[in-house]
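note to self: dont lose this again. the chain is below, predicted strucutre after it. 332 aa total, dont forget to put it in the shared folder this time
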Amino acid sequence: MEPLRVALLGAGHLGTFHARALRRLAGEHRLWIHDPDAARARRLAQEVAAVACDLAEALAAADAVVIAAPTAAHAELALQAFDAGCDVFVEKPITRTLAEGEQLVQRAAADERILQVGHIERFNPIFRAVAADIGVPAYVEAERLAPFVPRSLDVDVVLDLMIHDLDLVLAQVPADVAALDAAGAAVLTPREDIASARLRFANGTVANLTASRVSQEKSRKIRFFSRHAYLSLDLAQRTARRVAIRSDAAGDVEVPGMGRFTVAEEQLEQKTPDPLEQELHAFLTAVQTRTPPPVSGAQALRVLRVADAIRDDVQRSLRRFDEAQPCPIPGS
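---
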């Protein structure tokens, strides 16, 4: 396959990881880097043997564009990339609003362009190792906790953190969300820093999701339960625990009226490969082969639609809370 010319838009914290991963993957591919902070772009370009340039030059040079800019800039940058005839990888969430996301998906389809979205946990090696075993779960619990860092504060915790686990759940459950209940609070920023949501799907699946960016500890765990087994994943450690029940006349567990069973437990570990490299490799391969990407714009739009419903319910919950509080005493 012919080598690609790749433009990276965004040289901040996340863009730095993208630049290093692209360089490790690059081979004969060439890399251009643009950032509104030209000095930052030059420093990163020097580190990864790329070309620092302005936006117009980057888009004119590129076959494929990787957008690692703040969420508010996703839609505008992606549309400009499409105007330049480029395929696009954009970090999660796909856009800030549903209307922007719908515009990108429609535009990519109309122009026959590749549009992949960076839901990186799909490429977590432990999730990929067990996804087929999960199937369609009956019940899901997810917990994503992180200490506060002054980054990604242009979005709330649902779009910052919870969206990762929401994407994994939606990847396994093909049904629509039939009902949801969510709550949250703004703690250290003007936007919600902690949130929880309970989703009930039309097929009966229930998912409880919790996310916090003001925790004292870091945790990225998700558990999938079916009728006869469950899988508990530690996405940070890239390990899993699989527990399954099977009928066994000599089993060590007896359930009255059901017979004897054996409880089989297995510990799994899958440390490699690197998820960021894998998702960027998938994007570049989709561009070169003109095949659908593994995380399409349409899939990301479905995730954003449910995330927006969660955010709306969080806001309703906060309004009910505020209305229920007694008026403060002047001077107190």
